[in-house]
Amino acid sequence: MKNIDTAFRHVRGFTMLVVGGSLIMSCFALYKSFSLVSQMQEKVYILANGKALEAYASDRKDNIPVEARDHVVTFHKLFFTLDPDDKVIKTNVTKALYLADDSAKRIYDDLKENGYYSGIISGNISQTIQVDSVAVDINKYPYHFRCYATQNIVRTTSVAHRSLITEGNLRNVSRSDNNPHGFLVERWNTIENRDLSTENRK
């Protein structure tokens, strides 16, 4: 009886040890599985030119400065890139107005009323813009920005270079096909727009 009792205690202890070990291993396996799934969900593979490229998901707050600057650059390039073609002007300005509030619409209406766009078409003028830098203050919402750029105005006989400085605020909005960054330019105004130089075309 003594041996049976001792053997039973040994078997019971061994069984409890096996069950406890199995539970620990199961919990560890579940933890590692969930951890691995979470890591995999942060990775996206993009197929480009026959090559698989790995991309990582991140919180928006990590990308706010980059996205905000790119939004401002995109808006200015669309608004100020003009060719002597009414359709091109309307297409670019329409895309730009999706990225800003009525302050940009008012400026567009004023330029249109003053004959700015008709002058570009009748004079066969092309206008491009080179954004030199964008300063965005992300410490206070809405985010204030200031954009420093150079306008290049190509006329039939000359090329003019103008300094352009604008400022405004950025407000968060829903992302869409027309506004992929999810920002809206508000209270946009021009601080400086002056001639830098003019050179004759050969």
Question: Main sheet: which strands, in order across?
Answer: 3-4-5-6
Oligomer: single chain
Q: What gap, in angstroms, lies between the N and C termini?
A: 115 Å
Number of helices: 5
What is the helix fraction of residues, given as a range? 40-55%
- Globally, the shape reads rod-shaped
Mean pLDDT: 88
| Helix-strand string | HEEHHHHEEEE
What structural category do the secondary elements indicate?
alpha+beta
Largest sheet: 4 strands, antiparallel
Count of distinct strands = 6
Low-confidence segments: none
Q: In what range is the share of β-strand residues?
A: 25-35%
Radius of gyration computed on alpha carbons: 31 Å
Organism: Flavobacterium zhoui
Transmembrane segments: 12-31
Keywords: Membrane, Transmembrane, Transmembrane helix
Protein name: Conjugative transposon protein TraK
Describe the structure.
This protein is of the alpha+beta class and 202 residues long. The protein is built from five helices and six strands, in the order αββααααββββ. The mean pLDDT is 88. Strand 3 (126-137) and strand 4 (143-154) form a beta hairpin. The strands form two sheets. It has a four-stranded antiparallel beta sheet, with helices on one face. Strands 1-2 form a two-stranded antiparallel ribbon. This is Conjugative transposon protein TraK. Keywords: Membrane, Transmembrane, Transmembrane helix.
List keywords for this structure.
5 helices; 202 residues; two-stranded antiparallel ribbon; rod-shaped; transmembrane helix; transmembrane; alpha+beta
